[in-house]
């Protein structure tokens, strides 16, 4: 069974996909946090694997109140744990869900999705991506 802490580590990369940005050297492990459009991202860990041609990225993401991430896809799976606040999550083919603190979600590879901050407080996410190495972390749809 996966502990809350273990899941948080695995889940850290989902919001990157929600935000629709590409992976660059600026998102290298140990780099300073970056903020754009009310979304702050900090890469906590980036490593090769679990299989050849893939990498695992763990990211701490904070959304300011009202911040919205446009529709995008990822070249791998996104697993996200909501540490604080809540987020609205429209995933193609499913009704929009509101995911609250203590809950988690996954987005399959190449599945269009978005995200937003409905409440008055900030939202903090731990996102884990397992994606094809060398491809943009997220591509707008």
Automatic annotation (TrEMBL):
Limits of the Cupin type-2 domain: 61-125
Keywords: Signal
Signal peptide: 1-28
Record keyword Magnesium present: no
Pfam families recorded: Cupin_2
Domain of life where this protein originates: Bacteria
Protein name: Cupin domain-containing protein
Source organism of this protein record: Rhodopseudomonas palustris
